[in-house]
Amino acid sequence: MPKKWNTYHTRGIKKKYLYRFMDKEKLIDLLSSKSLYLTRMDRFKDNLEGIKTYDITELINHYQDYFHFPISDKHPDLADSDFNYLKENARESLVQQREILKKVQNAHFVSCWFNSEKESHAMWSYYAGKGGFAIRFERKEFQENIKQSLLLNATDDEQSVIVGRIKYQDFKSLIFNEEQSQVKYLAFRKDNSFEHEKEYRVVMLDTSSSGQEDHKKYQITSFNELDITIIVDPEIDDDSFVQFKTELEGFGENISVVRSELEPFYQFKKRTERLLKNNLK
Question: Global pTM?
Fold first, then answer.
């Protein structure tokens, strides 16, 4: 039976907070259910989530060979039969890798968080959108509450939970350092093109998963004791802020709704324009 609780790549974490940027519907679901939404890993945009170290270079090379190496580009000394063999070998490898990744991804359910001391314009734009929100926890307190909630959520022998920071690696250069580039848990590696996400994850590994469920809910037993900060869209107007503050703080005394620290970057011109108009009256 696997160990139920593990942390990974957490020892060197210096950033205090975890943020998750989302729309109002997802925020209300989190607050009302007091649960994290863990998405099955194959539903992420990164198709190579969970890839094994020694498969990365092979997949990248075979991908190029099959999809971007037309016969018109082959060397004149390469016989057509050899070219066709290369294409077929690449095709078989890609199909095999697809099945391996599908099995790995179907067994992992993930909640993704932004680990930083401050908000991010990119995270607001990409994940929250106009009228969205960010929820913020202190990382150490959040992690301890995930651990305390373990037995309520990982009820089967085949289930375990891992929390920690992503390791970002340059996939194209891994061939030169494969042995030193291995990760203990496959859900904690991404190409360094995703490094701006500064990602911390809560991962449930369920080796018994059939792939039928596309998510899991992870209930936090001490949710009402967590220090929860909800940050509103930096473009929000004053009346809407007051409305959201009243509504969302109604979910618990441990919840504080605050303005975004990025608000001046979005509203300086608009607010000072009104200021000038009022002075002219």
Answer: 0.93
